[in-house]
Design goal:
Number of strands: 7
CATH superfamily: Peptidyl-tRNA hydrolase
Strand content: 15-25%
Largest sheet: 7 strands, mixed
Length: 209
């Protein structure tokens, strides 16, 4: 069985830790920690890589060490080196269209204005699995989007991410175990229930109850 690559997108450097744009790094770091694995520098591929035997096969966890806008530059040779199948590659990245704690899965779509995804599409084509990790929309419409995604997550947003870590990791496992289509259905159902719960909570708040 060919290994499956899970690529987290982000910017290298301590100054970017905790920013919205580094949500992809955050999740693959959590996965490496959960698996008791360790990152190894692969300088010729400009990436950090952890190999893990889990979920019925081998996972190749990847953090590019280029900046976000060049995320795909060295990825194809790295995936080929590990004999990963491009269409089964999972790319984890931040998405301002969803609140923290929410996920949407997609594939074969446009970049949605995300420069890291844009470079991935340029490098390996659009038919990879996108694990879109919500980081919340900007609160002030006048704010530049780059300033928003390079800004640090607020404490309550961090709590929302941390509180849903098991959900995120379970979703990754479901993609690996049962395929993207099956995982999409599960995530869509979860999001539907959450939206209904959020709406009910809002209505109760509006009623003053």
């Amino acid at each position: 069985v060919p290994p499956i690559a899970i690529v987290g997108l982000g910017n290298p450097g301590s100054e970017y830790v905790g920013t919205r744009h580094n949500a992809g790094f955050w999740l693959v770091d959590k996965l490496v920690h959960r698996m008791n694995a360790a990152w190894k520098d692969k300088s010729r591929f400009h990436a950090r890589v952890a190999l893990v035997s889990a979920w019925g096969g081998t996972l190749v966890l990847i953090k590019p060490t280029t900046f976000m806008n060049c995320s795909g530059e060295y990825l194809k040779p790295l995936l080929n080196y590990h004999k990963c199948i491009l269409v089964e590659t999972i790319v984890v990245h931040d998405d301002v269209a969803f609140p923290p704690g929410h996920v949407k899965l997609s594939r074969n779509r446009g970049d949605g204005g995300h420069n890291g995804v844009k470079d991935m599409i340029r490098a390996i084509g659009p038919n990879f699995i996108r694990f879109r990790l919500g980081v919340g929309a900007k609160q002030d419409f006048r704010m530049d989007l780059a300033d928003h995604v390079l800004g640090r997550l607020r404490p309550e947003e961090i709590r929302d991410l941390e509180g849903n870590l098991d959900f995120f990791l379970d979703t990754l496992r479901e993609i690996v175990d049962k395929g993207c289509a099956h995982a999409m259905n599960s995530v869509n159902q979860t999001n539907k229930v959450r939206s209904e719960t959020d709406e009910q909570t809002k209505l109760q708040g509006d009623d003053g109850s």
